[in-house]
Specification:
The complex is a heterodimer. Chain A is an alpha/beta fold. Helix content of chain A is 49%, strand content 9%. The termini of chain B are far apart. Classes of the chains: A alpha/beta, B alpha/beta. Bound molecules: iron/sulfur cluster. Iron/sulfur cluster binds next to helix 14 of chain A.
Amino acid sequence: MSDPPVQDTSPTFLGMPSFQRAAKVALADTQQRRNLAHATATIRAKRAAAVAEVEGWEELRLAGAGAKDEALHHLPDYLEQLEAALTARGATVHWARDAAEANRVVVDLARAKGTDEVVKVKSMATQEIELNEALEEAGIAAWETDLAELIVQLGEDRPSHILVPAIHRNRAEIREIFARRMGAVGRAAPADLTDEPARLAEAARLHLREKFLRARVAVSGANFAVADTGTLVVVESEGNGRMCLTLPETLITVVGIEKVLPTFADLATMLQLLPRSSTGERMNPYTSMWTGVTPGDGPQEVHVVLLDNGRSRVLADEAGREALRCIRCSACLNVCPVYERTGGHAYGSVYPGPIGAVLNPLLRGTATEVDRSLPYASSLCGACFDACPVRIDIPALLVRLRTQVVDEASGRSAEAASMKAAAWMFGDHRRLEAAQRAATLGGRLLGDRTIRSLPGLGAWTQARDVPTPPTETFRQWWARTHGDAEGDRDDAGDAEGDRHDPGDQPVEPEQDIGGAVPHTSEEGP
Amino acid sequence: MSSREEILARLRVATGDVTSQPGERDPVPVVAETAGAAPDTLELFVTTVTDYRASVVRCTPEQVGAEVAAALVRARAHTVLVPPGLDTSWVARARDAGLRLRADEGEDGGPLTAQELDGIDAVVTAARVAVATTGTIVLDHAPDQGRRALTLVPDQHVCVVRADQVVLDVPDAVALLDPTRPLTWVSGPSATSDIELDRVEGVHGPRTLDVVVVG
Ligand code: SF4
């Protein structure tokens, strides 16, 4: 059998410029940068406090990684077990090779119900396959019900953060969007709407309740799918998930095949890890679990769409497969100095931040400009690995992907050898940390917030993160930038866009977090 | 080849290097949460629930009716939903105070519709288990809690938790749950942080959560 197919880049992101070029545009948006800096700093502090409460956090991370690895290493077996458990409980299981197939399944199911609208719970998987667009094309309105998704949808915008998709919007902008757009698609916002968060939430409650009460079909994703019981889990805050999962007659859940957990007991680990890592709460307000159909309670027609869409390709990559452990908590985004300055849109995918920089090229390959540039969208500071509840070694994966990009562009080369040294260094966390500390210190002495070089890597690190103009091949870019002078770089990947205003820069996250989290064992941020 | 067969075949090739058997790993480790210097479990539960800005009181079995009624009156509830298996002594005082009790029975004799539920102010339920370290109540929607919609649409949820139902942490709770039942984990009132990360209580679920701990 040939290699599993890559995920097609969706039309939204086709022709995206490289990360570095898109980041430059994002960096110019001071409002967004301010919103982001505030938001990520707030979540970082909350997460640090919530994690510090759990003495055995490192043990938990190991258990979380272990549960996901067990599922991934035996994915076909666990998927078959999941399917059997779901079917036994009255659910119907569909399999989708790619986005088009998944969308077709959902559109056909909605059509069969004779409905012209569905309510939706925030779901990365359905964003990935652009289900809303597919439904719209079929004449079916898809109402996003998560407050942030509603803001994004009404603002005809794209999400920029996994957890807080409207993180780039401030309250005044949200008020304006609600006042202007709600009336066109349902109950209008109150005339005297202010930009107080409580009033904005109230407007959303009233606007959406009308839709919840009449909806006959809901579409959701799932955070976890438990193989041994057939239980699906949605973790949320607002109650819109509960509304969608409970009130309509028909529920369609689109689940990436990597969401499988081997056993119900593994949920204990995940429910300890996810909320603390994600929103920095001991527990999120609502978690719903359902196992097929429960007569007399909730949807009586339950469908599950198991989605591949490039995941089997990632799984086939022995080193890359650990990226599939991701539980989309967004902790790595919030600690990332690059993400904090550029925001999510520059990543050219629904998966932004450090995990996006890894996952997108793994899922989609490195054929496009944006996917080739993503492995460079990082300063390799290591904060993402420290924060990751399932211990995905994002820096090591980024380095490996850089190697791949370089190899593909220029064949084996001297640079590739230097990459090997990098892989060795990043393969061991302690070595990385030592290098990191030295480099950060060096940067600081130079009055600079970015790492200009890592010991032992020489010229290679000098060239990373340099913008890639579209007309240039990678080889040309490499030749040009390889000998580039230190002082004259406009280095968007290092997020130095506002070097004219150094006082405005947030503290480097690795410092920020490092001081705040009293960790017990070797991996504390 | 069907999509199913093709995906499974891809995955078998993709995991061709794996030598272990499914289920061969060590038993799922149970990592207890401590939440600082824990006082007794019940006190911890009261503290963590309070942190979510939910109201929580402790009382004796004889006082449940009075505490439930007080919570309902405080939130100015007029109509109160009573799940079919609820201990009716818990809502007797509320009825005496003039609140209107409703069963899950609509105009047409069937269960209440979502529209009908939307007209009801509050619901009183029991719980299946509660988690001290996280301040969480887990409902398994047995008759003393009612089907899921009952604790979702009304704007106030008064939940009576027996002291012996409060366990220390999440693994303890998971071990007690029946996965074949629908389960709802509730930690404080509905909330969002989507607007500049300000936590705002109350979006779609009940905006008021009152917990009564008995014993
Ligand atoms: S990679 Fe890790 S930290 Fe980042 S979103 Fe995924 S699970 Fe969270």
